[in-house]
Amino acid sequence: RNLFGPDRYESEELVELLSNENRVTKETPPTFIFHTTEDQAVPVENAVRFYSALRTHGVNCEMHIYQKGRHGVGLAQTDPVLSSWPARLEDWLRTNAYLPGLPN
């Protein structure tokens, strides 16, 4: 609903159609999810449902939920806790050998 604004949605069917968790298939690419509980624009529950759908379809995925942080924190380089997420992503990429030339 936040993506296009509340006035753009005329039906719950459209909301369901555009919900990430409803679009997952076994062909969905491996997915790394980083979210915060304090995000007021996209509820963390959306990320949890998406993660659950990925797992249900056998998609390789990893999720990290941080307690603090607004929507759009980006790289969060100045936050001592949130700034750790790029290292978690790198760990995941290494563990799964997703980047050629990156040692596991």
Low-pLDDT runs: none
Looking across the biggest beta sheet, what order are the strands in?
A: 1-2
Shape: flat
CATH topology label: Rossmann fold
**Number of H/I helices:** 3
Please trace the helix and strand order, writing H or E for each element. HEHEH
Percent helix: 25-40%
Q: Structural class, please? A: alpha+beta
- Based on DSSP secondary structure assignment, what is the total number of beta strands? 2
CATH class: Alpha Beta
Mean pLDDT: 84
Relative strand content: 5-15%
For the record, the count of structural domains works out to 1
User: Major sheet: size, sense and barrel closure?
Assistant: 2 strands, parallel
Gyration radius (Cα, Å) is 16 Å
**CATH architectural grouping:** 3-Layer(aba) Sandwich
CATH homologous superfamily annotation? Alpha/Beta hydrolase fold, catalytic domain
CA-CA gap between termini: 40 Å
